[in-house]
Amino acid sequence: MFCHLRPVRRLCPGKILPYCFLLSRALSGAEAVNALRPFYFAVHPDFFGQHPREREVNENSLKRLSAYLENLQKPGFKSLKPTQLVFYVRETDQNPSDGQEHFSTSGFRAVKFTLHTRDLLSTVLYILNSCSLSIEHVQSLNTNVHSQPLKEAKRTSDRPIKWDKSYYSFTGFKDPDEDLEQVWRMETTLTSWLDNNGKSAVKKLKNSLPLRKELDRLKDELSHQLQLSDIRWQRSWGIAHRCSQLHSLGRLAQQNLETLKNAKGCTIIFTDRSGMSAVGHVMLGTMDVHHHWTKLFERLPSYFDLQRRLTHLEDQISYLLGGIQVVYIEELQPVLTLEEYYSLLDVFYNRLLKSRIPFHPRSLRGLQMILNSDRYAPSLHELGHFNIPVLCDPANLQWFILTKAQQARENMKRKEELKVIENELMQASTKKFSLEKFYKEPSVSSIQMVDCCKRLLEQSLPYLQGMHLCVSHFYSVMQDGDLCIPWNWKNGEAIK
What we know:
By secondary structure, this protein is α/β, with parallel strands linked by helices. Helices cover about 50% and strands about 10% of the residues. The chain has 16 helices and 14 strands. It starts with 12 loop residues before the first helix and ends in a 10-residue tail after the last strand.
């Protein structure tokens, strides 16, 4: 079966190695995770605590990458749509530049690539090569596993491999666990961190006040001029960056006002790519030029038509599933375009039509579900909504929803109660500490926020007076003076 490889033996071994390597065999899920360890180490969000924008980009891209890798391993998989990803990669000695990518002075660089691979091995190699990371350990891994008996290879479980410390000493690779442990050891107490950073935050906030007023003015003017519902940002860009984006949109409005008025009643979001989001927001990619934005605004009428068809599709799914509401929760799901989300709904709807699951009409009204492309089995979220895989077995789906319906209602009731408590505690904290603004990152749950606020209210924190405070997962002073604290802070080591 390998006779077709013989002609290439006359070539340089270094040139034929990737070809032979690719043909040797497919990687398992565990091997793929292990092979990507240097990549995860280079982009792990925990190492970007002082760079919240880059941290958010990596968090979102890792979610999309995880979904892509999961789909590659699904039975009956045929092909995936191209997936464009952006990562900020930390610079290390093992991360040399090829001279073609931009290196920032902060110790990391932006890497952008599009995945359109058909198996785990080629995906892993493409990711590592795109990030200028070594692939030698992947070749070694593949060779070693290939030499094992087939039965032993089949028994390998799909869980991440934890290497012995001697592996890192011998290979020279850095141990991600060791560095993460060091991050946790370096965590300080809330009071001492505020003592060390409070003055610099006050100075930055004071310097940002004129720009903040300019931002409010630009936002109000554009919202009124284009009759927008809102203008938002998906990332934690600085105030100056946001003003620049609004100035850019304002110049485009002067040149093509009638075209931009197609967005009347919409919410505009500045983000990583242009298009319309799954919930109908107009997404303006900050790396795109005016020409791309103009084309998007020109296409909005066709997007609105697709949005109406999507809503009808959601209603049809709801009807087939006893009145359960199909929702898209931005904070919990990967960022999808309207086209991507419609495609997911369409696949799920056609599967339901073929199976015709017998649900009593309106028996599940008041319940909610979200569709996932990166899961195998349905689950119930603590917030009360069902996580339903697009390719879920209809019979299992019916049994799971019916047996979990009462628990889902209880979870949803608890969610509403928690939201009320959370709002009350946030108002109390704002009042006690005389905060100018108190908010949280979307990834912080209500349970986490309630716990954080209860403990904050027991403290005396004079540095917070007049400040902008954000509850997050890390400590940071933002460039415009906002204070970020982890929800799980304590006067001692942070809770893991």
